[in-house]
Amino acid sequence: MNLDDIGNTPLVELMRFACNGGRLFSKCEYMNPSGSHKDRTYLNIITSLEREGVIRKGMTLVDCSTGNGGAALAWIGKKKGYSIKIFMPEGMTCERKEQIRAYGAHVVETPKESFLVGAVDATKEYVKSKNSSEVYFLDQSSTLLNKLAWHTCGEEIVKALGEYKVVPDYFVCSLGTGGTFSGIAEVLKRHYRDIKTVGIEVDASAPLYAARQGLEFEHRSHNLMGLGAGVLSINTIPNLIDEVVVVDGDEAWEQMRLFVSKNEYGIGPTCGANLLVCEKIAAMQRGLNIVTLFFDSAWKYKSCWDGVYPTYTEVKLCC
Ligand SMILES: Cc1ncc(COP(=O)(O)O)c(C=O)c1O
């Protein structure tokens, strides 16, 4: 596999999904080389920074991740000749940690009590302690190069929907940093004036939902890794999100397991969250065309197929 193998993923129609007379399409991002959507994110961040002369081969690149971003960065970094260091909260699945290490990157686990906020702090401290122009913090959460990576994917969706002769009514997608959602939504809103965009947060950590409902935001531990970091990224752009809905992590896992058992697509739990919301929207009105996205792969969760992260069941988080 090469860097050219990133992107151009299929937009598949989910024929077996109950759609109330409508049609449901999903962009299969788990088919990217490292098994998730984050290949697109890091390819754009790295190639843009190289073009600007900010980073060059041989440097050490660091970032924080619950796994997918780390694997993508590790894989692309190896291909391009960088050393990679990934700061991860304790307790992520062993498949994800093993994958990152298999690509030759170094994993630093940070205390569970402060989850991703703690991983960000640890990364900043590390970079400061090195005080070297050879070490660079990519910070996927704070760079809009993340969102920009997703314009190409948006254009791919428009092209594929054209081939299906479909005009979408809804775009439905979970929010982590929000880069994936915002980049695609920007393109879809340009092409389809009436499309409605629905962003999904996990109920235990839903800052945008809380802000829109006038509720106080509280971060609690959850089992939808990749969502609910505890802070809002600049890549989550509120005016691109027509509606924010929350999902229960256990229900998303259950939806994912059910879907994997009945379909040929090997997807992860945040894809289950997307499907849960698509199902609810489809039930509201007959004949809707809905587009969603499959982020990552089921094999990344094999060791916790019950959806339980033991490290996070008892923890009182402090971020
Ligand atoms: C499994 C999974 N789903 C969804 C997301 C959300 O993607 P984004 O950060 O682009 O919003 C992530 C992000 O890490 C993820 O790992």
Question: How does this structure look, described?
Answer:
The chain is of the alpha/beta class. It has two domains: 3-32 and 150-312, 3-Layer(aba) Sandwich (Rossmann fold), CATH 3.40.50.1100; 38-137, Rossmann fold (3-Layer(aba) Sandwich), CATH 3.40.50. The chain has ten helices and ten strands. The chain has helices at residues 38-51, 68-80, 94-102, 115-130, 145-148, 151-164, 179-191, 207-213, 249-262, 269-284, and strands spanning 11-13, 23-28, 60-64, 83-89, 106-110, 135-137, 170-174, 196-202, 243-247, 289-294. The strands form two sheets. It has a six-stranded mixed sheet, with helices on both faces. Helix 2 (68-80) links the parallel strand 3 and strand 4. Helix 2 packs parallel to helix 3 (94-102), helix 6 crosses helix 7 (179-191) and helix 9 crosses helix 10. The longest helix is centred in the middle third of the chain and has 16 residues, at 115-130. It is globular and about 60 Å long. The mean pLDDT is 95. Residues 66, 68-69, 174-181, 226-227, 268, 270, 295-296 line the site of pyridoxal-5'-phosphate.
